[in-house]
Design a protein that fits this description.
The structure is a homodimer.
Chain A lengths: L16 H10 L3 H14 L2 H9 L5 E2 H7 L4 H13 L3 E6 L2 E6 L2 H15 L1
Antiparallel strand pairs in A: 1-3, 2-3
Helix pairs in contact in A: 4-5
Chain A binds a DNA duplex through helix 5.
DNA sequence: AGAACATTTGAACACTTGCGCAAATGTTCT
DNA sequence: AGAACATTTGCGCAAGTGTTCAAATGTTCT
């Protein structure tokens, strides 16, 4: 780079118009893309992922959940709210206790797939 | 809540020891859990997810990638670095251009699974 | 009603992170 | 060598986020 010239950055120019058009179809449904990102983001945080994993087999109350993943009740509760809002977990009240479990079996498949990816 | 009493929070006490022990096995391999979270986190950001989706069918150069997802070359390049480091995408140089493509077919399966989850 | 306790929640804080900008790098031309 | 251009990268910042602490809520007892 020399002189005070304007540095053009490939921004408007498109190299291969056809491929761009084809690829655009993959992300044209923006709501779907953002929805997927939301799910991934929720699973992409260690505390939340641990919660989901811990609940894979059986329901647990918040207290035991915190003990299981070695966190605090407060931290777990905060994250459970996000998982609840996204319908990734469901809950059932039993007196003072609240038992959480995974809402959807898809989640297990997704996790299994990623586990395979890791272990290759 | 009354008086200046200490507020005990269920922290040491465990309600159901057996279930906690069982659930702990699911997250005992902490490296695996963190590795999975890393993958999810990468896919959990709209720009990065769009990149992966755009590359699903065919490779694209950085310039076209930016045009496809309607972002800037700089932003795309920054995110590509993360995806490269995690081996989610691979690249091939062709003169001034660098063509990126998805590294692993597992990713497509994972995305397909999440897509199904969204659409239910 | 009041004590005890599991859970939730709001605020504050430290920390992370995606992106814009400018400069650097690498390649292909003349 | 130098121009042109695609891509990468370091820096800085605004926005986002996870955790802690304290207080509130809800439930089950006596």
């Amino acid at each position: 780079m020399e002189k005070g010239k304007v540095i053009p950055v490939c921004d408007v120019e498109i190299i291969d118009e056809k491929k761009v058009e084809a690829a655009r179809e993959k992300i044209e449904n923006i709501d779907q893309v953002l929805g997927m990102a939301d799910i991934f983001k929720l699973l992409g945080e260690p505390t939340r992922l641990k919660i989901i994993l811990a609940l894979e087999n059986s329901e647990l109350c918040v207290c035991d959940l915190a003990a299981t993943i070695d966190s605090t009740v407060s931290a777990v509760s905060h994250q459970l709210r996000l998982l609840r809002n996204a319908r990734l977990v469901k809950y059932r009240k039993a007196g003072k206790l609240v038992y959480y479990s995974v809402e959807d079996e898809h989640i297990d498949k997704i996790i299994e797939q990623v586990k395979e990816h890791i272990e290759e």
